Amino acid sequence: MSRCARYASTCIVAIVLLIAAFAAPASTSAQPAAIGAKQAEKDAAIAEADALQKRLAEQITAYIDIARRLDVARAEVTEAGLRVIESEADLERSKASLEQRIGQIYRGSSVDALEMLFTASSVQNLLDRMNYLVIISRYDNRLVEEMRIAKQQAAWEQQALEERAARLSDMQADADAQRMQIEAAIDEQQAKIAELDADIAELVRASMSFAPDGDFSPNTVISDANFRDVTSMSEEEVQRFLEAQSGTLARYSTLDHAGVRKSVAAMIVDAARQWRISPKVILATLQKEQSLLSDPTPSQNALDWAMGCGKADTHTDYKYQGFGNQIWSGAQVLDKNTAPWRAGIEMVIDGTAVYPSNASTYSLFKYTPHLRGTTSFWMLYWRYFGDPLG
Predict the structure, then answer these.
(1) Could you count the other beta carbons within 10 Å of the beta carbon of residue 315?
(2) pLDDT confidence of residue 66
């Protein structure tokens, strides 16, 4: 082996080790026990949240009942207050009537008394008339006393109703405080559930990851069968895969190459079927070019150049800009790049001679003419989907 060849081989191994440090998962074995424990913890948190929701519903019902009772009590207090005012008015009228009668009989009616004396037909008639006046006076006094008692009773009723309204108001405040405590507890449980979801997703990603079991060979990066396996993932499977990643593509939708708004999964499957490129190849390319499978906060520039299509080392072709254009045109270019391949063809990549053994490997090097980029694709495909040659 020449010194140059040995140097190139050393470079390739170094690139593989460097990328493996970043692309390979920390653990390649499934972790069912850890996932099960997290799921059980999540189920318990969901059950607790459900119980809190029921308590909240009961508390809201109690709060509404107290509010209605408080409204009734306040209305009754108002009515009692009106009765007190009415009783006071009746009492004042009775007092005025009594004073008027007394004045007529005892103060301003001495002539009338003499008249009553001289006009009486007999002593008995005089006594009857005087007795009648006494009866009227007693009746007026009793009426005034009854009015006074009625006023006092109305005042007591008003006070009792005010105390009842105050108690209901305190109960309403307590119910409101309990409602706020329950809502805070629900928020805490929901935050816990979200955190557990993230933990479970990370464990699932780890359990789904693979590690290379062989050395990277630039001459054969992927088999033609895997490169062209259009049916390797359905739209639903692509969506579930994206949901298991830490990036945002599972929730992202935008215009496709034809100006129709679609989900990322739908665009990937459409492009895969049209250009006979495996959805797995497109997904690995999205991660290789812009880390879109793992980036939780991708920039607009990263989305606009998602597949790196049209972004060469020396120039940028803006007709490929836009996420929808990137998916469609990226798959189209990967398909088109296979055409010139022939057995024994030589490519010089980063100063190293590469002899692609199939059209798919040739296409990957045409797409990204760097050892590091194609090695990264190989590692990422291994990580997410297993052996690209298997």
Answers:
(1) 8
(2) 81
